[in-house]
Structures are given as C-alpha cells and as structure tokens.
Design brief:
Helix content is 17%, strand content 40%. It is α+β, with helices and mostly antiparallel strands and 139 residues long. The chain is globular.
C-alpha cells in the first residue's frame, strides 16, 4: 500500500514539474531592406536566418537569455554549428514596439557578451560589427 502511495506521489510531482516548465520561444520573422531582406525562424530545437548577405541554415542552439514576460519577450541563442555562408554565431530577438522586432546577429559569443561595454559597439573593428534588423513577426 505504501509503495502505491509513493508511486502516486512521484507521478504527481512529475506531472507538476511538466506543467510548470516554461514553453519554448518560437517565431517566424520577416525582414526588409538591403541587408535584412529575408527571414528569421526560431523553432523549438533549431534556428535559421536567411538574409541577403548571410545564409544561416537550420542549426541546433543553446539559449543564452530568455524572458517570456508579457510585453517583454526576449531571446538570445548561440548556434551549435555555423553553416558555411553564415556570418553570425549568436542571434538576439526582442520587440521594439507593438508590431516590430529587433533581430541582431553577433559574429561571436564574445561580441554578444561584450555588447554593453563602452566603445564596443562603435568600434571600427570588423569582428565587433552587429547586424541589426527591424523585422515583423509573422506568427
């Protein structure tokens, strides 16, 4: 009898943990303009960004930052494998206003981590350049 109670309690705890898990961030975004024309797609297990000058094919990713609070959705991901024509290693997406999102591409994890340092983003060094694209969320 105690074994049945223990199993029941374990199942109840597992069910509660599954319900409490945060849902994945997913979205399809459309960019316009010379460098930003194309699409950014973040799925449950892969991310993809196809733009005029960079083709980042679907890749698995690790989440660097995520905030799904209503009105303040934000995600930053680090891709696990960069395709040959992909210029970026870290992608960040957050809303600018009601309809527009800012999607940024960082060439390295170091560039993403140092983005707030004084003088980093205004540096003429090519490895510090960030692609910042205004996009519209499609879903």
């Amino acid at each position: 009898m105690q074994m049945i109670k223990a199993i029941g309690l374990a199942l109840l705890i597992l069910a509660g943990a599954a319900v409490a898990a945060e849902p994945p961030f997913t979205g399809a975004f459309n960019g316009r303009g010379r460098a930003c024309f194309g699409g950014f797609y973040i799925r449950e297990k892969t991310v993809e960004w196809i733009s005029t000058y960079s083709i980042c094919k679907p890749s698995r990713y690790e989440v660097l930052a995520k905030d799904l609070t209503a009105g303040r959705q934000r995600i930053a991901v680090h891709i696990k494998s960069r395709s040959r024509q992909c210029l970026y290693e870290v992608f960040e997406a957050e809303p600018i206003d009601t309809y527009n999102w800012g999607v940024n591409g960082y060439q390295s994890l170091e560039s993403y981590k140092n983005r707030e340092l004084p003088g980093w983003s205004s540096s003429p060094l090519e490895e510090r350049w960030v692609l910042s694209c205004p996009m519209i969320r499609l879903n």
